[in-house]
Design a protein that fits this description.
Order of helices and strands: EEHHEEH
Shape: globular
Number of helices: 3
Radius of gyration: 14 Å
Structural class: alpha+beta
Strand content: 15-25%
Strand order of the largest sheet: 2-1-3-4
Number of strands: 4
Amino acid sequence: AASHTILLLQPTRRPESRTYADFNSKTECLEGVCKMFEEHLKQQNPNSPSITYDISQLFDFIDHLADLSCLVFSAKTNNYVPCNKDWVKEEIYIMLRKQAGQ
């Protein structure tokens, strides 16, 4: 079953840079983090026709964010479970491996 997921993000040290986004599933949230990184790469390389990257660059991007965490809804306990950057990286790794294997 899809778990409603809230992404909490603070890209810089400035508290006013804090934002959040909510997603219908954990996978949508993880894809959202990848898209955010892709947008960041497009801004850095505006003249590049296509953007390619490897997972280590994505993880560096996540590590350099001031804060990134997720709240994932658990139907079992009927509440949101907080998950940190390491969880996000591990889940993205699993998701990308699955996509590569398709």
